[in-house]
User: Fold this.
Amino acid sequence: MGGGGPHVVVVGAGSTGAAIAHDLALRGFAVTVVERGEVGSGTTGRNHGLLHSGARYAVTDPVAARECIEENLILRKIMPEGLELNGGYFIALTPEDMDFRQTFLEGCEAAGIPTRELTKEQLLRMEPRLSPKILGGVMVPDGVFEPYRFCLSFLASAQARGARVLTYHEVEGVLVEGGRTRGVQVRDRIRGRELTITADAVVNAAGPWAAKVAATAGCRVPLILAPGVMIAVGVRYSHRVVNRLAPPGDGDIIVPQRFTSMIGTTSWTVQDADLIPIPPDHVERMMDAGEAFFPGFRRQPKRGVFAVARPLVGPEEDQAEGEGFERAVTRDFACKHHEAEGAAGLFSVTGGKTTTSRLMAEAVVDQVGRWLGFERPCQTRTEVLLPPRRFFTERVVS
Ligand SMILES: Cc1cc2nc3c(=O)[nH]c(=O)nc-3n(C[C@H](O)[C@H](O)[C@H](O)COP(=O)(O)OP(=O)(O)OC[C@H]3O[C@@H](n4cnc5c(N)ncnc54)[C@H](O)[C@@H]3O)c2cc1C
Assistant:
Protein backbone atom coordinates (compact mmCIF):
# COMPACT_ATOMS: atom_id res chain seq x y z
CA MET A 1 0.00 0.00 0.00
CA GLY A 2 1.45 3.37 -1.03
CA GLY A 3 1.39 6.68 0.70
CA GLY A 4 3.86 6.35 3.55
CA GLY A 5 1.70 8.54 5.79
CA PRO A 6 -0.86 7.42 8.37
CA HIS A 7 -3.30 4.73 7.26
CA VAL A 8 -6.93 5.82 6.76
CA VAL A 9 -9.86 3.51 6.01
CA VAL A 10 -12.65 5.07 3.94
CA VAL A 11 -16.05 3.37 4.29
CA GLY A 12 -18.06 3.59 1.05
CA ALA A 13 -17.11 4.04 -2.60
CA GLY A 14 -19.82 6.44 -3.70
CA SER A 15 -18.85 9.85 -5.04
CA THR A 16 -17.95 11.09 -1.54
CA GLY A 17 -15.75 8.13 -0.57
CA ALA A 18 -14.08 8.05 -4.00
CA ALA A 19 -13.18 11.76 -3.83
CA ILE A 20 -11.90 11.33 -0.25
CA ALA A 21 -9.69 8.39 -1.27
CA HIS A 22 -8.14 10.49 -4.04
CA ASP A 23 -7.51 13.48 -1.77
CA LEU A 24 -5.99 11.32 0.98
CA ALA A 25 -3.71 9.48 -1.48
CA LEU A 26 -2.60 12.74 -3.09
CA ARG A 27 -1.61 14.12 0.32
CA GLY A 28 0.49 11.02 1.06
CA PHE A 29 -1.82 9.00 3.31
CA ALA A 30 -2.01 5.23 2.97
CA VAL A 31 -5.62 4.47 2.00
CA THR A 32 -7.98 1.51 2.05
CA VAL A 33 -11.50 1.93 0.68
CA VAL A 34 -14.04 -0.62 1.90
CA GLU A 35 -17.27 -0.85 -0.14
CA ARG A 36 -20.01 -3.37 0.58
CA GLY A 37 -21.13 -3.58 -3.08
CA GLU A 38 -19.90 -2.34 -6.44
CA VAL A 39 -18.37 1.12 -6.84
CA GLY A 40 -21.18 3.70 -6.88
CA SER A 41 -23.85 1.14 -6.00
CA GLY A 42 -25.48 3.37 -3.36
CA THR A 43 -27.10 6.77 -3.88
CA THR A 44 -24.48 7.92 -6.37
CA GLY A 45 -25.18 5.16 -8.90
CA ARG A 46 -28.88 5.94 -9.07
CA ASN A 47 -28.81 9.73 -9.11
CA HIS A 48 -29.72 12.13 -11.91
CA GLY A 49 -26.22 12.62 -13.32
CA LEU A 50 -26.60 16.40 -13.33
CA LEU A 51 -23.41 18.40 -12.95
CA HIS A 52 -25.15 21.22 -11.11
CA SER A 53 -24.39 24.79 -12.07
CA GLY A 54 -25.97 25.67 -8.72
CA ALA A 55 -28.87 27.47 -10.41
CA ARG A 56 -31.38 24.94 -8.99
CA TYR A 57 -30.47 26.24 -5.50
CA ALA A 58 -29.71 29.88 -6.34
CA VAL A 59 -32.87 31.22 -4.70
CA THR A 60 -33.50 28.73 -1.88
CA ASP A 61 -30.03 27.54 -0.79
CA PRO A 62 -27.34 30.12 -1.69
CA VAL A 63 -24.46 28.33 0.10
CA ALA A 64 -25.09 25.11 -1.85
CA ALA A 65 -25.51 27.15 -5.06
CA ARG A 66 -22.12 28.80 -4.66
CA GLU A 67 -20.44 25.48 -3.84
CA CYS A 68 -21.98 23.88 -6.92
CA ILE A 69 -20.79 26.53 -9.38
CA GLU A 70 -17.29 26.58 -7.91
CA GLU A 71 -17.02 22.78 -8.05
CA ASN A 72 -18.63 22.65 -11.50
CA LEU A 73 -15.82 24.89 -12.80
CA ILE A 74 -13.12 22.82 -11.07
CA LEU A 75 -14.51 19.50 -12.34
CA ARG A 76 -14.51 20.81 -15.91
CA LYS A 77 -10.72 21.09 -15.58
CA ILE A 78 -9.85 17.97 -13.59
CA MET A 79 -12.28 15.44 -15.12
CA PRO A 80 -11.93 16.00 -18.86
CA GLU A 81 -13.04 12.48 -19.80
CA GLY A 82 -15.97 12.16 -17.42
CA LEU A 83 -18.33 15.00 -18.30
CA GLU A 84 -20.69 16.11 -21.03
CA LEU A 85 -20.38 19.90 -20.96
CA ASN A 86 -23.59 20.63 -22.76
CA GLY A 87 -25.14 23.34 -20.55
CA GLY A 88 -28.72 23.62 -19.35
CA TYR A 89 -31.85 25.76 -19.45
CA PHE A 90 -34.39 26.93 -16.90
CA ILE A 91 -37.64 27.06 -18.82
CA ALA A 92 -40.92 28.82 -17.99
CA LEU A 93 -44.10 26.84 -18.60
CA THR A 94 -46.55 29.25 -16.93
CA PRO A 95 -46.88 33.01 -16.30
CA GLU A 96 -45.96 32.32 -12.64
CA ASP A 97 -42.69 30.76 -13.87
CA MET A 98 -42.04 33.94 -15.89
CA ASP A 99 -42.68 36.03 -12.75
CA PHE A 100 -40.05 33.96 -10.91
CA ARG A 101 -37.44 34.80 -13.55
CA GLN A 102 -36.21 38.06 -11.97
CA THR A 103 -35.74 36.46 -8.51
CA PHE A 104 -33.95 33.56 -10.20
CA LEU A 105 -31.59 35.84 -12.16
CA GLU A 106 -30.75 37.80 -8.99
CA GLY A 107 -30.06 34.57 -7.08
CA CYS A 108 -27.76 33.32 -9.85
CA GLU A 109 -25.89 36.61 -9.96
CA ALA A 110 -25.37 36.61 -6.18
CA ALA A 111 -24.00 33.04 -6.34
CA GLY A 112 -21.70 33.82 -9.30
CA ILE A 113 -23.60 31.64 -11.80
CA PRO A 114 -23.46 32.99 -15.37
CA THR A 115 -26.84 33.26 -17.12
CA ARG A 116 -28.19 34.16 -20.56
CA GLU A 117 -31.85 34.95 -21.13
CA LEU A 118 -33.48 33.21 -24.10
CA THR A 119 -36.74 33.88 -25.88
CA LYS A 120 -39.25 31.18 -26.66
CA GLU A 121 -38.21 31.30 -30.33
CA GLN A 122 -34.51 30.88 -29.52
CA LEU A 123 -35.27 27.93 -27.23
CA LEU A 124 -37.43 26.20 -29.81
CA ARG A 125 -34.72 26.62 -32.44
CA MET A 126 -32.13 25.08 -30.11
CA GLU A 127 -34.44 22.34 -28.78
CA PRO A 128 -37.17 21.64 -31.37
CA ARG A 129 -38.84 18.90 -29.30
CA LEU A 130 -39.78 21.32 -26.51
CA SER A 131 -43.47 22.12 -26.15
CA PRO A 132 -44.57 25.11 -28.26
CA LYS A 133 -46.38 26.29 -25.10
CA ILE A 134 -43.14 27.28 -23.32
CA LEU A 135 -42.83 31.00 -22.57
CA GLY A 136 -39.08 31.64 -22.37
CA GLY A 137 -36.01 30.69 -20.37
CA VAL A 138 -32.50 31.20 -19.08
CA MET A 139 -29.32 29.33 -20.00
CA VAL A 140 -26.87 28.18 -17.27
CA PRO A 141 -23.64 26.10 -17.24
CA ASP A 142 -25.18 22.77 -16.16
CA GLY A 143 -23.59 19.57 -17.43
CA VAL A 144 -23.96 15.80 -17.28
CA PHE A 145 -21.82 13.09 -15.64
CA GLU A 146 -22.08 9.33 -15.56
CA PRO A 147 -22.05 8.43 -11.87
CA TYR A 148 -20.04 5.17 -12.19
CA ARG A 149 -17.32 6.78 -14.31
CA PHE A 150 -17.28 9.81 -11.99
CA CYS A 151 -16.34 7.55 -9.05
CA LEU A 152 -13.92 5.45 -11.11
CA SER A 153 -11.89 8.53 -12.12
CA PHE A 154 -11.29 9.46 -8.49
CA LEU A 155 -10.56 5.85 -7.50
CA ALA A 156 -8.23 5.21 -10.44
CA SER A 157 -6.20 8.24 -9.41
CA ALA A 158 -6.15 7.07 -5.78
CA GLN A 159 -5.09 3.56 -6.83
CA ALA A 160 -2.24 4.97 -8.93
CA ARG A 161 -0.91 6.35 -5.61
CA GLY A 162 -1.22 3.01 -3.86
CA ALA A 163 -4.76 3.10 -2.46
CA ARG A 164 -6.46 -0.28 -2.03
CA VAL A 165 -10.12 -0.54 -3.05
CA LEU A 166 -11.96 -3.51 -1.58
CA THR A 167 -15.37 -3.89 -3.23
CA TYR A 168 -17.91 -6.40 -1.88
CA HIS A 169 -16.42 -5.93 1.57
CA GLU A 170 -18.85 -4.77 4.25
CA VAL A 171 -17.84 -2.92 7.40
CA GLU A 172 -19.59 -4.72 10.25
CA GLY A 173 -18.09 -2.61 12.99
CA VAL A 174 -15.77 0.29 13.70
CA LEU A 175 -13.18 -0.86 16.24
CA VAL A 176 -12.66 1.48 19.21
CA GLU A 177 -10.29 0.92 22.13
CA GLY A 178 -9.68 3.36 24.97
CA GLY A 179 -11.68 6.11 23.25
CA ARG A 180 -9.69 5.83 20.03
CA THR A 181 -10.61 4.30 16.67
CA ARG A 182 -8.34 1.40 15.76
CA GLY A 183 -9.78 0.23 12.45
CA VAL A 184 -12.72 -1.75 11.11
CA GLN A 185 -14.10 -5.27 11.25
CA VAL A 186 -14.98 -6.31 7.70
CA ARG A 187 -16.80 -9.18 6.01
CA ASP A 188 -15.59 -10.23 2.55
CA ARG A 189 -18.96 -10.95 0.93
CA ILE A 190 -17.51 -12.99 -1.93
CA ARG A 191 -15.21 -15.33 -0.03
CA GLY A 192 -17.35 -15.29 3.10
CA ARG A 193 -14.44 -14.51 5.42
CA GLU A 194 -13.95 -11.98 8.20
CA LEU A 195 -10.97 -9.63 8.37
CA THR A 196 -9.74 -6.89 10.65
CA ILE A 197 -8.20 -3.83 9.06
CA THR A 198 -6.25 -1.64 11.47
CA ALA A 199 -6.02 2.08 10.75
CA ASP A 200 -5.00 5.39 12.29
CA ALA A 201 -8.36 6.95 11.34
CA VAL A 202 -11.65 5.89 9.74
CA VAL A 203 -13.71 8.14 7.46
CA ASN A 204 -17.34 7.12 7.30
CA ALA A 205 -18.61 8.06 3.83
CA ALA A 206 -21.42 5.50 3.79
CA GLY A 207 -24.02 8.00 2.52
CA PRO A 208 -27.51 7.10 3.75
CA TRP A 209 -25.97 4.21 5.73
CA ALA A 210 -23.57 6.53 7.62
CA ALA A 211 -25.70 6.51 10.79
CA LYS A 212 -25.66 2.69 10.84
CA VAL A 213 -21.87 2.55 10.45
CA ALA A 214 -21.31 5.18 13.18
CA ALA A 215 -23.72 3.38 15.51
CA THR A 216 -21.36 0.36 15.60
CA ALA A 217 -18.96 2.64 17.50
CA GLY A 218 -21.76 4.01 19.71
CA CYS A 219 -21.85 7.30 17.80
CA ARG A 220 -24.64 9.36 16.23
CA VAL A 221 -24.80 10.85 12.75
CA PRO A 222 -27.72 13.26 12.27
CA LEU A 223 -29.17 12.21 8.95
CA ILE A 224 -32.39 12.69 7.01
CA LEU A 225 -33.04 9.97 4.42
CA ALA A 226 -34.90 11.71 1.60
CA PRO A 227 -35.48 9.50 -1.46
CA GLY A 228 -36.55 10.67 -4.87
CA VAL A 229 -38.14 8.78 -7.76
CA MET A 230 -36.55 9.02 -11.20
CA ILE A 231 -37.62 7.66 -14.57
CA ALA A 232 -35.57 7.05 -17.70
CA VAL A 233 -37.28 6.91 -21.10
CA GLY A 234 -35.53 5.64 -24.22
CA VAL A 235 -35.46 8.91 -26.17
CA ARG A 236 -32.98 11.74 -25.88
CA TYR A 237 -35.36 14.70 -26.07
CA SER A 238 -32.86 17.54 -25.70
CA HIS A 239 -29.23 18.39 -26.29
CA ARG A 240 -28.98 20.13 -22.93
CA VAL A 241 -30.35 19.73 -19.41
CA VAL A 242 -33.89 21.08 -19.00
CA ASN A 243 -34.97 22.52 -15.63
CA ARG A 244 -38.24 24.22 -14.70
CA LEU A 245 -37.93 27.94 -14.02
CA ALA A 246 -39.57 27.69 -10.58
CA PRO A 247 -38.55 26.95 -6.97
CA PRO A 248 -37.44 23.30 -6.45
CA GLY A 249 -40.38 20.92 -6.92
CA ASP A 250 -41.40 17.52 -8.35
CA GLY A 251 -40.22 16.53 -11.83
CA ASP A 252 -38.41 19.79 -12.44
CA ILE A 253 -35.23 18.43 -14.08
CA ILE A 254 -34.78 16.35 -17.26
CA VAL A 255 -31.23 15.20 -17.92
CA PRO A 256 -30.19 13.86 -21.33
CA GLN A 257 -28.01 10.82 -20.58
CA ARG A 258 -26.64 9.05 -23.70
CA PHE A 259 -29.77 8.15 -25.77
CA THR A 260 -32.15 8.49 -22.82
CA SER A 261 -33.89 11.30 -20.94
CA MET A 262 -34.07 11.03 -17.16
CA ILE A 263 -36.76 12.92 -15.31
CA GLY A 264 -36.71 13.52 -11.58
CA THR A 265 -37.45 13.80 -8.89
CA THR A 266 -39.90 13.60 -6.06
CA SER A 267 -38.98 13.85 -2.39
CA TRP A 268 -40.15 12.26 0.85
CA THR A 269 -38.49 10.67 3.90
CA VAL A 270 -37.86 7.05 4.93
CA GLN A 271 -36.27 5.31 7.93
CA ASP A 272 -34.35 2.59 6.06
CA ALA A 273 -32.23 3.27 2.95
CA ASP A 274 -32.45 -0.42 1.98
CA LEU A 275 -36.25 -0.40 1.83
CA ILE A 276 -37.70 2.24 -0.50
CA PRO A 277 -40.98 1.17 -2.14
CA ILE A 278 -41.77 3.40 -5.12
CA PRO A 279 -45.13 5.19 -4.68
CA PRO A 280 -47.11 4.67 -7.95
CA ASP A 281 -48.49 8.23 -7.84
CA HIS A 282 -44.92 9.60 -7.93
CA VAL A 283 -44.38 7.78 -11.23
CA GLU A 284 -47.53 9.33 -12.68
CA ARG A 285 -46.46 12.80 -11.51
CA MET A 286 -43.06 12.41 -13.18
CA MET A 287 -44.59 11.33 -16.48
CA ASP A 288 -47.02 14.30 -16.39
CA ALA A 289 -44.15 16.67 -15.68
CA GLY A 290 -42.18 15.24 -18.62
CA GLU A 291 -45.19 15.64 -20.91
CA ALA A 292 -45.45 19.35 -20.03
CA PHE A 293 -41.93 19.91 -21.41
CA PHE A 294 -41.91 17.37 -24.25
CA PRO A 295 -45.20 16.35 -25.91
CA GLY A 296 -45.26 12.55 -26.30
CA PHE A 297 -43.07 11.93 -23.22
CA ARG A 298 -45.93 10.15 -21.45
CA ARG A 299 -46.25 7.55 -24.21
CA GLN A 300 -42.58 6.54 -24.17
CA PRO A 301 -41.78 3.08 -22.79
CA LYS A 302 -39.96 3.42 -19.48
CA ARG A 303 -36.37 2.15 -19.48
CA GLY A 304 -36.12 2.33 -15.71
CA VAL A 305 -37.98 3.57 -12.64
CA PHE A 306 -35.82 3.90 -9.55
CA ALA A 307 -35.58 5.54 -6.15
CA VAL A 308 -32.68 6.15 -3.83
CA ALA A 309 -32.17 8.14 -0.63
CA ARG A 310 -30.33 11.45 -0.29
CA PRO A 311 -28.15 11.43 2.84
CA LEU A 312 -29.13 14.96 3.95
CA VAL A 313 -27.61 16.66 7.00
CA GLY A 314 -30.10 16.24 9.85
CA PRO A 315 -30.61 18.20 13.09
CA GLU A 316 -28.42 17.38 16.13
CA GLU A 317 -31.58 16.94 18.20
CA ASP A 318 -34.80 15.22 17.10
CA GLN A 319 -37.28 17.87 16.04
CA ALA A 320 -40.84 18.03 14.75
CA GLU A 321 -41.11 17.70 10.98
CA GLY A 322 -43.97 18.68 8.69
CA GLU A 323 -44.77 17.10 5.33
CA GLY A 324 -42.29 18.13 2.65
CA PHE A 325 -39.88 19.67 5.21
CA GLU A 326 -36.93 17.84 3.59
CA ARG A 327 -37.17 19.99 0.45
CA ALA A 328 -36.05 22.94 2.59
CA VAL A 329 -33.08 21.08 4.14
CA THR A 330 -29.77 22.45 2.92
CA ARG A 331 -27.83 20.60 0.21
CA ASP A 332 -24.68 21.73 2.01
CA PHE A 333 -22.58 19.09 3.81
CA ALA A 334 -21.26 18.38 7.31
CA CYS A 335 -18.10 16.67 8.63
CA LYS A 336 -18.27 15.33 12.16
CA HIS A 337 -15.39 14.07 14.31
CA HIS A 338 -16.78 11.64 16.89
CA GLU A 339 -14.10 12.39 19.51
CA ALA A 340 -16.59 13.77 22.06
CA GLU A 341 -18.61 10.55 21.74
CA GLY A 342 -15.60 8.40 22.69
CA ALA A 343 -14.41 7.48 19.19
CA ALA A 344 -11.49 9.81 18.41
CA GLY A 345 -10.31 9.22 14.86
CA LEU A 346 -13.75 8.38 13.46
CA PHE A 347 -15.03 11.04 11.05
CA SER A 348 -18.44 11.04 9.32
CA VAL A 349 -19.31 13.09 6.28
CA THR A 350 -22.88 13.58 5.10
CA GLY A 351 -24.99 15.78 2.83
CA GLY A 352 -23.68 17.55 -0.26
CA LYS A 353 -24.09 16.48 -3.86
CA THR A 354 -22.03 14.37 -6.23
CA THR A 355 -21.16 17.71 -7.84
CA THR A 356 -19.58 18.90 -4.56
CA SER A 357 -17.83 15.64 -3.60
CA ARG A 358 -14.33 17.03 -4.22
CA LEU A 359 -15.03 19.92 -1.84
CA MET A 360 -16.47 17.57 0.78
CA ALA A 361 -13.30 15.49 0.51
CA GLU A 362 -11.09 18.55 0.94
CA ALA A 363 -12.94 19.53 4.14
CA VAL A 364 -12.83 16.10 5.76
CA VAL A 365 -9.21 15.37 4.80
CA ASP A 366 -8.16 18.77 6.24
CA GLN A 367 -9.84 17.69 9.48
CA VAL A 368 -8.25 14.21 9.50
CA GLY A 369 -4.79 15.63 8.72
CA ARG A 370 -5.05 18.20 11.52
CA TRP A 371 -6.07 15.57 14.04
CA LEU A 372 -3.32 13.13 13.01
CA GLY A 373 -0.67 15.87 12.86
CA PHE A 374 -0.07 15.05 9.17
CA GLU A 375 -1.08 18.30 7.48
CA ARG A 376 -0.41 18.59 3.76
CA PRO A 377 -1.96 21.11 1.38
CA CYS A 378 -4.92 19.95 -0.70
CA GLN A 379 -4.05 19.64 -4.40
CA THR A 380 -7.27 18.28 -5.83
CA ARG A 381 -8.40 21.60 -7.30
CA THR A 382 -5.83 21.31 -10.06
CA GLU A 383 -4.74 17.66 -10.20
CA VAL A 384 -6.19 16.18 -13.40
CA LEU A 385 -7.83 12.81 -12.74
CA LEU A 386 -7.03 9.61 -14.60
CA PRO A 387 -9.57 8.32 -17.12
CA PRO A 388 -12.15 5.99 -15.52
CA ARG A 389 -10.93 2.86 -17.35
CA ARG A 390 -7.57 3.16 -15.57
CA PHE A 391 -9.39 1.95 -12.45
CA PHE A 392 -9.16 -1.55 -13.88
CA THR A 393 -5.47 -1.35 -14.82
CA GLU A 394 -4.22 0.50 -11.73
CA ARG A 395 -5.82 -2.03 -9.40
CA VAL A 396 -3.77 -3.37 -6.50
CA VAL A 397 -4.75 -7.03 -6.01
CA SER A 398 -5.25 -7.92 -2.35
C1 LIG B 1 -32.95 11.07 -6.58
C2 LIG B 1 -31.63 11.76 -6.41
C3 LIG B 1 -31.09 12.46 -7.46
C4 LIG B 1 -29.87 13.13 -7.30
N1 LIG B 1 -29.34 13.77 -8.36
C5 LIG B 1 -28.14 14.37 -8.26
C6 LIG B 1 -27.56 15.00 -9.38
O1 LIG B 1 -28.12 15.00 -10.46
N2 LIG B 1 -26.36 15.61 -9.23
C7 LIG B 1 -25.69 15.62 -8.04
O2 LIG B 1 -24.62 16.21 -7.98
N3 LIG B 1 -26.21 15.00 -6.95
C8 LIG B 1 -27.42 14.38 -7.03
N4 LIG B 1 -27.96 13.76 -5.96
C9 LIG B 1 -27.23 13.76 -4.70
C10 LIG B 1 -26.12 12.70 -4.74
O3 LIG B 1 -26.58 11.55 -5.39
C11 LIG B 1 -25.65 12.35 -3.33
O4 LIG B 1 -25.37 13.51 -2.61
C12 LIG B 1 -24.37 11.49 -3.43
O5 LIG B 1 -24.53 10.45 -4.35
C13 LIG B 1 -24.01 10.90 -2.09
O6 LIG B 1 -22.86 10.13 -2.29
P1 LIG B 1 -22.21 9.31 -1.11
O7 LIG B 1 -20.93 8.76 -1.61
O8 LIG B 1 -22.15 10.19 0.10
O9 LIG B 1 -23.27 8.18 -0.78
P2 LIG B 1 -23.47 6.79 -1.59
O10 LIG B 1 -23.36 6.95 -3.04
O11 LIG B 1 -24.71 6.16 -1.06
O12 LIG B 1 -22.21 5.95 -1.15
C14 LIG B 1 -22.15 5.30 0.10
C15 LIG B 1 -21.55 3.92 -0.15
O13 LIG B 1 -21.34 3.30 1.11
C16 LIG B 1 -21.55 1.92 0.94
N5 LIG B 1 -21.80 1.31 2.26
C17 LIG B 1 -22.89 1.46 3.04
N6 LIG B 1 -22.75 0.75 4.18
C18 LIG B 1 -21.53 0.16 4.11
C19 LIG B 1 -20.81 -0.70 4.98
N7 LIG B 1 -21.32 -1.10 6.15
N8 LIG B 1 -19.59 -1.15 4.59
C20 LIG B 1 -19.06 -0.75 3.38
N9 LIG B 1 -19.70 0.06 2.53
C21 LIG B 1 -20.93 0.51 2.88
C22 LIG B 1 -22.76 1.85 0.00
O14 LIG B 1 -22.83 0.59 -0.66
C23 LIG B 1 -22.49 3.02 -0.93
O15 LIG B 1 -21.86 2.62 -2.13
C24 LIG B 1 -29.18 13.08 -6.08
C25 LIG B 1 -29.73 12.36 -5.02
C26 LIG B 1 -30.94 11.70 -5.18
C27 LIG B 1 -31.50 10.91 -4.06
In short: The longest strand covers residues 302-313. The chain has a mean pLDDT of 94.
